[in-house]
Amino acid sequence: MKIPPYILIVLTLACCTNKSKQPDMVPMSKENLIQANHGLVSIDQERIASYAERRQWNMQTSKTGLWYQIYEHGAGDSARTGLIASINYSVWLLDGTLCYTSDSTGEKTFLIGQGGVESGLEEGILKMRIGDKARFIMPPHLAHGLLGDGKKIPARSTIVYQVDLINLTH
């Protein structure tokens, strides 16, 4: 008995298809997502605490999870929403990788309260006066989140800012 080639092809394809049942996907409940987020935040906080302790930085923590230390105090005006902040800065990952610095990119200028920078940076700047120098450690939710910045900061990264508030203008 001779089998036509097209039937052989159909039989071969039918036999080679994976008929095993895929595992049922259980949708994540809101409670499960909240628990997962709390777990990630706890891990981030432990890493940050260890990082700051190794460097003997005496840092404070805000309600949002920003770690900050103003280690040199200036005598200028206080930062507030609606002013344009000019800063010199450096940004590192917790592993010590230097990502950005105003030495290579120039000072950063932004309107406080408008967004466009990390929410942790805005929050930290609002704690400063002109002439202050500070450190901010930002967990992912205050930095570049789940995706990173697409350049030098990987997904879900905690970042460290070293900031010098140079000027505030209208």
Taking pLDDT < 50 over at least 5 consecutive residues as the criterion, the unreliable ranges are none
- Major beta-sheet overview: 7 strands, antiparallel
> What is the C-alpha radius of gyration, as a whole number of Å?
25 Å
Q: Give the overall average pLDDT.
A: 89
Structure report:
- This protein is of the alpha+beta class and 170 residues long.
- The protein has 4 helices and 7 strands.
- Strand 1 (60-61) and strand 2 form a beta hairpin.
- The N and C termini lie far apart (91 Å).
Write a concise synopsis of the structure shown.
With about 170 residues, this protein is α+β, with helices and mostly antiparallel strands. The protein contains 4 helices and 7 strands.
How are the secondary structure elements laid out?
Layout: H1 5-16, H2 30-54, E1 60-61, E2 67-72, E3 84-93, E4 98-101, H3 102-105, E5 108-111, H4 119-125, E6 133-138, E7 159-169
Antiparallel strand pairs: 1-2, 2-6, 3-4, 3-5, 3-7, 6-7
Salient structural properties:
single chain, 170 residues, 25% strand, 4 helices
